[in-house]
Amino acid sequence: MLSLKQRRSLNTLLMGVLAWGVALAIFFPIFWMLLTSFKTEIDAFATPPQLFFSPTLENYTLVNERSDYLHFAWNSVVVSFGSTIIGMMLAVPAAYSMAFFETKRTKGTLLWMLSTKMLPPVGVLVPIYLIFKDTGLLDTKTGLVIIYTLINLPIMIWMAYTYFKEIPKEVLEAARMDGSTLFQEIWRVLLPMSKGGLAATVLLSLILSWNEAFWSLNLTASEAAPLTALIASYSSPEGLFWAKLSAVSTLACAPILIFGWISQKQLVRGLSFGAVK
Amino acid sequence: MKTTTLNAGPASSAAEPKQDSRQGGKRKTSRINRFMVSPSVLVLALWMVIPLSMTIYFSVIRYNLLYPADNEFVGLENFQFFVTDFGFMAGMSNTLLLVGAVLLITVVLGVLISLLVNQAFWGRGIVRILLISPFFIMPTVNALIWKNLLLHPVSGVFAAIWKFFGATPIDWFSEFPLFSIIMIVSWQWLPFAILLLMTALQSLDQEQQEAARLDGAGPWALFFHLTLPHLARPIAVVVMIETIFLLSIFAEIFTTTGGGPGYETTNLAYLIYSQALLQFDVGLASAGGLIAVVLANIAAFFLVRLIGKSLTEKQ
Amino acid sequence: MNNKRYLSAVMAVGMTAVASSAMAATKVTIGTVNNGDMVRMQGLSDEFEKLHPDIDLNWVVLEENVLRQRLTTDIATDGGQFDVMTIGMYEAPIWGGKEWLTPMGDLPSDYDLADIFPSVLGGLSSDGTLYALPFYAESSMTFYRKDLFEANGLSMPDQPSWDQMKSFAEQLHKPQEEQYGICLRGKAGWGENMALVTTMANAFGARWFDENWKPEFTGEEWGNAVSFYVDLLGNYGPPGASSNGFNENLALFNSGKCAMWVDATVAGSFLTDESQSRVAEHVGFALAPEQVTSKGSGWLWSWALAVPVSSDAKEAAKTFITWATSRAYSQLVEETYGIANVPPGTRTSTYDNVEYLEAAPFATRTLEAIGNADPNDSTLNPSPYVGVQFAAIPEFQSIATQVGKLISGALAGSMSVDHALKAAQSITLREMTRARYYSN
Fold first, then answer.
1. Tens digit of each residue's pLDDT (9 = 90 or more) over A129-180
2. Statement to judge: residues B126 and B263 lie in one domain
């Protein structure tokens, strides 16, 4: 018979193995995409799928010859960071006043903001296209920044709101008593105290903007097209395309994936939406 | 570290100071309040009102992109055509099925997996990174990988696994189209549930658990009486956020099945897409968009009834 | 509103900045589809920029569906995002007729318009005015595996009937060995399954509309054709047939999994290309199958380049498309990628070239197939529309998209053929009523 302690450590070991199994299974599609990107087209379509093959970089070379990856990647970076920064500038004050000066209408406003996210984007494509045409915003990074800011703003306000709600009002009031201005109050007291949560808000907004594919495809042509548009030019051409598609997908996802890995601690800690007490 | 110390405070103290701030300096605060919220509200209002009013206008005229000049007023004809469209009923039920199934899968698996990784074991950091990775992948790429590399009935990985066990490979997108979409979308959103629930579990009171265990509570009792109640709020958040995104899911369907075969994977968002950009019938799509907004708001209303209360107010 | 004015002011400044730098080089934005021939064109565009240093080409390469929605939104709202649009034989006459496209008059004398097949030019014109220049053109034909036919003692006639196809498919279908009797398009879409199904229906004597624009899906001809299609592909096709389009089938045939395939003639150059086909030496070519008639049994399509009226660089755009569709361009492709990769189906001179005929074993059949296709007379019973595998009216795309979904549903077994056709009938009536063709 095993002692209680032994049984526990065996249990932990089994749990560990199981956890690894689940994690690998969930990660498998991404691993497979990476692997396929180093295959030749014929290997990529082979049956049964091959785990061992002679790797080639030809897909990456080809993608780089055909399209200017850096141009697309740069647009993605500018648009996601741009919309996130502007979004935070709008969201923090709004969330501040909602969280600390709550009125009867606050809750309604908050939910109304969230409900704007439920309009299917395609339902307003033609109106937006016409507005963008008249204001010269078609195929500009400015245009995409505006759209992404608006799309993500409700979520950002809501997230920031939940983090601010967790801060005791006394702390802010104490700062005000000490003669802090509103700006100082926000900058010196509020932001440092909700750092973790706001970092998660920023991350979420970056991820959502980076991965958004409907507006980016429909409102850009060549100048402002981000990585999602690059994917669309490889997604189903004539002939075999699995390996090239994998290469271009890897290129498009790698920056945000690596960024996500680096900052996952912030996400794990901060992405609570005020749900954790 | 900081978050946990902070978290302890508000639950007890939130209720009282609310009243102070209402009484003291009411006029001043409400002005600041309006000043601070107004930019966001204004922008969002513009964002809502301009396209929405255009959409309402388009929904009562005949507006086909291929006859852009021919815009007579048609009253409610577009609405009538939309609700009698062959895809409408299918679109409604598929939307509900898709949202419901993905929520169920991500919440159940999310709870199980986050419990699993809540224990200490070798390489937990890496396991977490692997688990949350799908959340960073573009929905389009997600759909393309699943369609071409994994679920392809001839050369896909799943087909190879089936063949390895001597079974006939399943043709996922024509035999179980909606299920396949659900699977793909769940894969994308599971990490989100795991992330939130994992965070929540970390703040679970260990001492309380230990005490209950010493009192002889079995793992099931522990789970149902301590862990699950603790997770209720984060689960509510997962449900809420995912619902918002899942109601208008589109890229995954567009890339894989194109709403087919038949109307089996057509949800409302895809139906409106196909009317607007495959049939170029902007009038019809506008009517559909408005109907979808109304339906989404009804859904939102119930969601708020169900869980929203506990989110905006601290108990 | 203030917001808007501010933005437009900012943009105006931006625009002037762009305009002043544009004095140096005119920017031409080209929207094109990611097919092999267009990707080659993009690869060769450096040569064009060398010839015309004052023109700067910008490429927007998208998959077909996305491109089509993108271009239509832009041209219909007068967006002006594109200077060159890659469009098909369906759009060219409709958009041209609406005066959304610049007429292609005054071409340089060495362009030699007379060299281009008249049926192709006809398909890109509206009321006798040419609105787009053909980049390549295709019909449909039957591809089959000569080695498998030989091994089983079968022989493929020049133009088989669908009944014959079925008996071949029956004998060559060996799913255990991953060899499927026949591959056909099953993926829903007016340019995907409906292209094939319409040519099949034509061969079975059906038509999209009668002389009064009434659909005939509940008639005997459509019933026969669709039942035959579902039966043939469902029983002797690859798994997942209802999600296979051109690309998927090409991949299947290239990896040796299809015994027969009826699809676009342009597939010929991919199937015979050893770098991507495992069966390059074994491909045989026949005409697309007939049944009660051979009229309309093979389609006619062309990808062509056009200049929208909303373009702000029309002259430069036209310079580019005359270059890309010229004989000199074909010459360039020949030198760079080999003669078999010359854009097919547009110029008589290509097919007069013995070298091409030798290098491209599919060339003679392609020529024959394109010659047989007549968009003005493609159905057994008279029809009011132009087009072989489509009807060149704006409503067609909408109708065929929905009908395509129903037929792919019938193929996947989620509804019966009968049910699908009844639904197709009522959808078509509904759309045509909505478009005011008749009231009822």
1. 888 989 999 999 999 999 999 889 888 988 888 888 888 888 878 877 877 7
2. yes
Residue A85 and residue C403: Cα distance in Å, rounded? 47
Q: Is residue B30 part of a domain?
A: yes
Q: What per-residue string of b and e applies to B17-49 under the rule 16 or more CB within 10 Å gives b?
A: beeebeeeeeeebeebbeebbeebbebbeebbe
Q: Which residues contact B230 (CB under 8 A, 6 or more apart)?
A: B200, B201, B204
Return contacts of A251-254, CB within 8 angstroms, 24+ apart. Answer: A251/A60, A251/A63, A251/A69, A251/A73, A251/A227, A252/A72, A252/A227, A252/A228, A252/B138, A252/B141, A253/A30, A253/B136, A253/B137, A253/B138, A253/B141
ipTM above 0.90, yes or no: no
Tell me: do B44 and B106 sit in the same domain: no
Cβ-Cβ contacts under 8 Å, A32 against chain B: 145, 149-150, 157
Tell me whether C17 touches chain A (CB under 8 Å).
no
Residue A192: is the preceding peptide bond cis (ω within 30°)? Answer: no
Closest by Cβ to B200, choosing from A113, A165, A272: A272
The model's pTM is 0.84
Tell me: do B201 and B254 sit in the same domain. yes
Which helix (H) or strand (E) segment is C61 a member of? strand C55-62
Chains that touch C (3 or more CB pairs under 8 A): A, B
Nearest Cβ partner of B51 from A128, A154, A195? A128
Domains in chain C: how many in total?
Answer: 2
CB A142 within 8 A of CB A73: no
Mutate to test the interface with B, among A109, A273, A276 (most CBs of B within 10 A): A276
Claim to verify: residue B117 and residue B262 sit in the same structural domain: yes
Identify the weakest region by mean pLDDT among A28-32, B194-198, B209-213, C280-284.
Answer: B209-213
Specify if C5 maps to a domain. no
Q: B248–A118: do the CB atoms touch at under 8 Å? A: yes
Cβ-count burial A74-109 (b if 16+ within 10 Å, e if not): ebbbbbbbbbbebbbebbbbbbbbbbbbbbeebbeb
Which residues in chain A are closer than 8 Å to B145, comparing Cβ atoms? Answer: 29-30, 32-33, 246, 249
Those of residues 38-57 in A touching chain B at CB distance below 8 A are 45-49
Answer for the pair C58, C31: CB distance below 8 angstroms, yes or no.
no
- pLDDT per residue over C425-436, tens digit each? 999 998 898 888
User: What CATH superfamily is the domain A60-270?
Assistant: MetI-like (1.10.3720.10)
pLDDT digits (tens, 9 = 90+) for C150-209: 999 999 999 999 999 999 999 999 998 889 999 999 988 888 899 999 999 999 999 999
Is B259 touching C (CB cutoff 8 A)? yes
B118 belongs to a structural domain: yes
Q: How far apart are CA B62 and CA B287, in angstroms?
A: 11
Structural domain boundaries of chain A?
Answer: 60-270
Give the chain B residue whose CA is nearest to the CA of A126: B282
**Residues of chain B contacting C76 with CB distance shorter than 8 Å:** 65-66, 68, 280
Write out chain B residues lying below 8 Å of A269, CB-based.
Answer: 3, 199
Do C409 and C260 fall into the same domain? Answer: yes
| Summary mean pLDDT of chain C | 90
My answer on whether B120 and B256 are in the same domain is yes
Residue A259 CB contacts under 8 Å (≥ 6 apart), including other chains:
A206, B136
